[in-house]
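Late entry, (2R)-2,3-dihydroxypropanoic acid complex.
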Amino acid sequence: MTPREQARQILKDNCHGTYTIPAKDLYPFQWNWDSCFCALGWGTFDEVRAWQEFDTLFSGQWKNGMLPHIIFHKESETYFPNADIWNSQTNPPTSGISQPPVASTLVKFLYERCKDKSEAKKRLHTLLPKLFLYHSWYHTHRCENGLITTYHPWETGRDNSAEWDEALFRVPLKLKGGFERRDTALIEETERPTGKEYDHYVALLQILKSHDYDGQTLHNTIPFKIADIGINSILLRADKDLLWLYQQTGDTKYSDQIKNRISSLENAFDLLWSSECENYGSYDLRTNTIIPVETAASFLPFYAGAVSDDKAEKMLKKLHSWEKQVKFMLPSLDPFHHKFEPKRYWKGPIWPIINFLVATGLKEHGYTDHANRIQEDTRKLIEQEGFREYFNPLNGLGLGGSNFSWAAATYLFWL
Ligand code: DGY
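Prediction complete; structure with ligand written out below:
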């Protein structure tokens, strides 16, 4: 089988009717951003199935607009924390937090590529109010000093990124009851977050649950309150793409509101620039300080279209030094950082979807050499190692889950 045939087969094997699980056993439910990338993959050979992926994802949307990070359509014993632990009291059961809001941008990418435009327009009409509501949730329930806040590392998608360590370990460990991880029974421990990190993830989950996941009350009490450079860049880009999507349908009723949101986020963006690192970073809203850790997400402001020429020059210098330090781009953590671990989840490995987003932004800014290097490295890694969850940037070895849906989708759509 060619890699493209294999990629299609992976999506089909991970397909549960109208949604796609990220990987068998390891992630047996529908995940928010995974699913959006899967839709792009489906869109290359089955447009109807691609739109279904979004429809099923939004069937889990909460009344307040929040789009959960996991939707538990069925039960499974192989994942912790399951639906009972989250106890969302919703139908279908879901987690109580969200994930990076790639949806509107990936709906745009799908729409642009669809051959059947009349079907695509119909689907857009159904999806647009849901996307608008999702963005509204971020801009009202999760906005502070003009920036978008996050209350849990799982919400950033970059669970154990070194950026979160200090804030995460401040979360008091008052665990109610024990718990048993399932991930380390399936994947080597050295490739996953540590036990200490998991204790704090669960402690934070218990705090969120005790407040019924209510953003308004959590706002003052939650110990982990971060403006993630990833979420802020992704939402800024998504706001612009949402405006574009509305324009395709000729509906202008929210144009001014969306434009205001874009400018308020753009105005706050300077808070995310670290002059110490000469790069973008995440901001700790509990200590009111920028976190001096550079990650792959530090380059997502290109994707947001938020980088001025003088900042771009500094960021490209960084990118260049990273290119010389690793064999494959783009490591998830600064390879010069003392916490860099090339095998451990978000503390160093390469993630195909982040590569796709960063390279897209670089290309749009005209930095094609850097974008091409990231794109070609991703292709090489997948073709050599298979559709793995993440890859070691020093030797290229595949890590984490296998037959991974978003690696397959990224390959089909981008590579
Ligand atoms: C996990 O379980 O590892 C996920 O990243 C949380 O969604």
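The chain has 18 helices and 13 strands. Will revisit in the morning.
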